[in-house]
Amino acid sequence: MDFSKGITPSGDSFKNQKWTILGEPYLPLHVSDSAMLMHAEFNVDSFVPTHVHDTQDEILHILEGEMEFETEGKVIKAGVGDTVTLPMGIPHSLHNRSGALARALVVVSPVARMYDYMVAIDGLSDPAEVVRLGAEHEIRFV
User: Fold this and answer.
1) Model-wide pTM > 0.85
2) Which residues form the Cupin type-2 domain (predicted)?
3) Which of 118, 107, 98 lies closest to 38, judged by CA?
């Protein structure tokens, strides 16, 4: 992928892409081989089930609201200004149980097949298909 210096203005995205996955909006802001940065919104009671990134670290910085992360038998609550680091190979899930919208910046590094996965699942409303495609893109739902 091409990495060029510059700025992505507010409201713009990488290659003008905007993804909606199971009803949740994701806005890719930067994509290169080494990292992908996305703005994500998590509606009330939304969640991403337990999954593993075998080839990427995932980092979330909470911009608005509160999120819960379940990993290694623990529940971690994160609020505005908190940064959550989820190393590769560690099963984890994400939940918005706060009763209000949550927003986060999400970094995935290295990108590996994550960008292709996000493109593949854009617009899907069937969780089983999201899981199936995850297996084809190095994301295991467990």
Assistant:
1) yes
2) 44-108
3) 107
Structural domain for 61, as ranges: 19-141
Instruction: Assess if residue 46 is contained within a domain.
Output: yes
Identify which of 74, 66, 69, 61 has the alpha carbon closest to the alpha carbon of residue 98: 66
Burial class (CB in 10 A: 0-12, 13-18, 19+), 50: middle
Under-70 pLDDT residues of the chain? 1-5
* Number of domains, the chain: 1
pLDDT per position as a tens digit, 85-117: 999 999 999 999 999 999 999 999 999 999 999
CATH code of the domain in which 123 resides: 2.60.120.10
Q: Is residue 12 part of a domain?
A: no
